[in-house]
Design a protein that fits this description.
Layout lengths: L19 H20 L24 E3 L5 E5 L4 E4 L10 H5 L8 E8 L2 E7 L4 E4 L9
Antiparallel strand pairs: 1-2, 2-3, 4-5, 5-6
């Protein structure tokens, strides 16, 4: 069955004076739509289900997500690796902002003022944010 594509008709269901016989077709369409939605759980072009912890089961998460622009993000659950094709943009954060983040060991951020007031990358060690200073400009040769 296909995912319902239109709003369900309530014309014969929204007033106390509506006749049950007139509402029959509307009720049938509603039940069919609910059945369609139910059949689309964990199906392609449908909706993901949730496990007992409220998470989408691994089997329903694709290995590759493709955006509208065609840039792919590859998740490789077996290797624990995320590959981003093209460029990953990091939102600049200040030293103060990073100090207020509930960071986890291994987090990486672009810090706009972390190398004595100049930009750097920052990596959280579990206790501190450590700077990774920028080197020379890239060059083709």
């Amino acid at each position: 069955m296909a995912w319902p594509a239109s709003t369900l008709n309530t014309t014969n269901l929204d007033s106390a004076s509506d006749k049950p016989a007139d509402a029959r077709a509307d009720l049938l369409a509603t039940v069919q739509a609910v059945n369609s939605i139910s059949s689309m759980r964990a199906a392609a072009d449908g909706v993901a289900s949730l496990d007992s912890s409220g998470h989408v089961p691994d089997s329903q998460i694709p290995d590759t997500l493709t955006s509208d622009s065609g840039n792919d993000f590859t998740f490789q659950p077996d290797s624990g690796r995320l590959t981003v094709f093209y460029i990953a943009g990091l939102q600049p954060r200040t030293v103060t902002q990073l100090g207020n983040v509930a960071a986890i060991t291994g987090d990486v951020s672009y810090c706009s003022n972390g190398a004595a007031g100049t930009p750097c990358l920052a990596v959280y060690t579990g206790a501190y944010w450590k700077q990774v200073a920028f080197g020379a400009n890239i060059a083709a040769s």
